[in-house]
Amino acid sequence: MNHFPEAWGRPRDDVYGAYNPSYLQTTGPKAHTSSPAVTGTSVLGVKFNGGVVLATDNLASYGSLARFTDVKRLRIFGSNAIVGFGGDVSDMQYIDRLLESIDIRENYSHNGNMLNAKNLHTYLSKVFYKRRSEFNPLWNHVLVAGYDAEGEPFLSSADLLGTTFSAPHLATGFGAHLAVPILRRLFPEEMPLEEVSKEAAIDALKQCLKVLYYRDARSMDKYSIAVITKEGIEIKEDEVIEGQSWAFAERVKGYGAQTK
Amino acid sequence: MFRNNYDNDAVTFSPQGRIFQVEYAQEAVKQGSVVVGLVNKTHVVLVGLKRNAEELSSYQKKIIEIDSHMAIAIAGLASDARVLSNFMKQQSLGSKMTYGRPIPLDRIVNQIGDRAQTNTQHYGKRPYGVGLLVAGVDEAGPHLFEFQPSGLTHEMVACAIGARSQMARTYLERNLDKFPDSSRDELITHGLRALKETLSQDKELTVDNTSVGVVGLAPEGSKGRIESFKLYEGQETVPLLEALERADGAAEESMEVDS
Q1: 3-state class of A162 per DSSP?
Q2: A149 touching B, CB under 8 A?
Q3: Which residues of chain B have pLDDT under 70?
Q4: Min CA distance, A126 vs chain B (Å)?
Q5: Shortest CA distance to A227 belongs to which of A84, A116, A131?
Q6: Is the pTM higher than 0.90?
Q7: Scanning A36, A76, A111, B72, which has the fewest C-beta atoms within 10 Å of its C-beta?
């Protein structure tokens, strides 16, 4: 996913040449659901010793317009999983309703047979895959955080195609380009999970959010952050990126209204 | 001549508030050969007495594996049980596919309960003529459920259904307090003894007519959380029947000492 909605889901012009519109039918199937409208940008997640932390900013963009500035893109499922949504916001709300109804159904079972984060992630990936197979995709890229059946911290992603991916730290959207290298530097592959503290994980995400705010034009400085540990879920939804320094911006040249 | 006017379909109540078709279905369960189920803290055991229609035919299967964590024992119309077990297998597979989780016992038992109930409320339908014992393990540990043609389901600590099952139930009730702390093997022996109680004078448990199924939590320190369902039939039942004989022999000896 790049940040030009009109290009999403189409062959890239720079690779395949401009699309010949004469091939397009003037009437055809309903297509407005196959591209996103109001979108959220990156979701970031890091596993630490004993839990997982997830963060997103609170912005929902309409194209390049910062349209809604208090959209909570982290959703808590039951008491044991968090889902972070990137991509289309209305599809997020639809999935949220699905999750709500599953949660209600699950709670009828009173003897502790609750879905864990891993089960939830499997379910979401099947929903995404079914919808992409119907050519009516849910335009999201989600991170699911929580615990697996063995009680180990769990963090995995699922995207609009039903592709799943798991790693000790993950980021969707622009974050996959900007945050993942930072996280890889902070928590190298050979570093065991036991050495990653909760505080280090939270600090790392705050640092990534700041970098994303500097460089991702679809991001903002208000964010949500959720920490899941064995004690429960701790979520803060009205945080502000602190310690910003835009001094570097002066030296950035070569685009926009700037001519020299 | 007396004729019951209220048993032509399963949707009509009698003036006494009974639904005769459902009661007749429950009679079908009593015609089936006996199956016994019992639970301790870690395992569930199903034992069944298999019948053969004639000397030269094979024995009718009594215990059906649904999934690696669950099995059913049947008493009544075996063909109706096949419909239910196929449904349960599908649901079980569906849960593994969409959630990556073995289906919880209470969930699937509720589903077959609901299915059976709709059969008692629609014109032109008939109730299932089979009773089930559903045994398995889930997040909450081992479970045993009884399912009746009426759609009624109960969670049980021990249960017996089928022909002459009253004798087995009496045994289970008398020994109820021994089950929770018994070992896996002791639980099987209790099950077989309850089954033996139901036999008529001229019958005995043999490798041909005995079926034993066990599923439970894996012992501490082993690989998975679950000890997958294991069905013992034919020669595999020999050690189990021998254990029963040994236990009974010991009991008789001690009784002789007493007298």
Answers
A1: coil
A2: yes
A3: 254-259
A4: 6
A5: A84
A6: no
A7: A111
HSE value, Cβ hemisphere, 13 Å, CA-based, for B70: 29
Residue B171, SS3 per DSSP: helix
**pLDDT at res. B259:** 46
User: Among residues B93, B60, B66, which one has the least CA distance to residue B147?
Assistant: B66
Closest CA to B133 of B22, B32, B37: B37
Query: Which residues of chain A have a pLDDT value below 50?
Result: none
Residue A189 backbone zone (phi > 0: left; psi -120 to 50: alpha; other: beta) = alpha
Among A26, A27, A33, A41, which one carries the catalytic annotation?
A: A33
Closest-CA distance, B99 to chain A, in angstroms, reads 5
Question: Which residue of chain B has the CA closest to A130?
Answer: B98
| A69 labelled catalytic | no
Interface predicted TM-score (ipTM) of this complex, two decimals? 0.86
- DSSP code of A97? H
The shares of helix, strand and coil residues in chain B, as percent rounded to the nearest 5, are 40, 25, 35
Q: CA triplet B116, B67, B235: central angle to 5 degrees?
A: 110
Query: What is the chain A residue with the closest CA to B98?
Result: A123
For the record, the structure tokens of A103 come out as 């949660």
